[in-house]
Design goal:
6 helices; about 40% helix; single chain; alpha+beta; about 140 residues
Length: about 140
Amino acid sequence: MARKAKPPTGKSVETLRHEEAKRRNIPTAEYQSVIQKEAEQPLAVTVTVKIAELRNRLSHYLQRVQRGDSILVCDRDRVVARIERAGLQASVRERDAEWLDRLERRGVVRRGTGTLSRQWLSRKPRVRADVVAALLKAREESP
C-alpha cells in the first residue's frame, strides 16, 4: 500500500554564495588549515600489478611512479616487489617504522621488548627434508 506524500513544511535552507570564489565548496575557517595541508601533499596511491601487465605497460606505470604512486608487483598473487619513486624525503626505515607504529596501534602486531641472544641466533633449524629439491619440484609442478 502506497503512503501518502506529506506536504512540504515551511522550513527552508539558505545557501551561502561567495561571489569572488571560483570553487563550489569552500571550507569554513576552522577546516581551511587542515585542507590546505592535505592539498599540498599529493595522495599516494598503491597499485597492485601482475608481472605480465607491468611488462606490457611499463611506461604507463613508470609515469604513475613519477607522480608519487607506489606499484606492488605480484607473481601468482604474491607480492614480490615494490616500485617507488627514488629520492623521497623520508627514508625507508622511517616509513617502515611509521608503518609498524600504525599496525601496533591497530593491534595487528606486538613488538618485542627484549633482544635475542647470540646463542639463539646462531642455532640453525634442523630440517630433515631437502629444501632446494622441494622448491624445484614445486616450481616444476606449478603452471
